[in-house]
Amino acid sequence: MKDTLITDEQLNLYRLEGVKVRVIRDAEPKNDVLGIVVAWNEQEVLIRKQNRKVLQLSRSYRIQPADQPRDSSSS
Questions:
Q1: What is the pTM assigned to this prediction?
Q2: Which stretches of the chain are DSSP H helices?
Q3: Which runs of E-coded beta strand occur in the chain?
Q4: What is the tens place of the pLDDT at every residue in 41-64?
Q5: By three-state DSSP, how is residue 27 classified?
Q6: Which one of 18, 19, 24, 51 is separated from 7 by 20 to 30 angstroms, measured CA to CA?
Q7: Is residue 1 part of a domain?
Q8: Residue 26 lies in a domain
Q9: C-alpha 28: how far from chain center
């Protein structure tokens, strides 16, 4: 798991551009969350999935654009 949190600037860019993101929670691709960034605070981020459900996830998870290849490394 990544120790550094994604920056506010990066989250804001994803939100403003409506970028679909992938939240990588562990080594299993089936556990990834795909959706768009809705809001965030210092510790958590809200992601709206395609089925309109909203998940509150830790910002310590790796967050990347969904159209990029899945990168499971902890860098």
A1: 0.86
A2: 8-17
A3: 20-24, 33-40, 44-48, 54-58, 62-65
A4: 999 999 999 999 999 999 999 999
A5: coil
A6: 51
A7: no
A8: yes
A9: 15
Residues with Cβ within 8 Å of 33's Cβ and at least 6 positions away in sequence, in order, are 22, 23, 25, 47, 49, 55, 57
Asked whether 12 and 22 are in contact (CB, 8 A), the reply is no
Give the separation between CA 75 and CA 15, rounded to whole angstroms: 23
Tokens of 58: 């830790």
Asked if the model's pLDDT at residue 38 lies above 80, the reply is yes
Query: Are residues 36 and 50 in contact, defined by beta-carbon separation less than 8 angstroms?
Result: no
Contact call for residues 61 and 24 (beta carbons, < 8 A)? yes
> Could you tell me the residue range of the domain that residue 16 belongs to?
8-65
Whether the predicted pLDDT of 75 surpasses 50: no
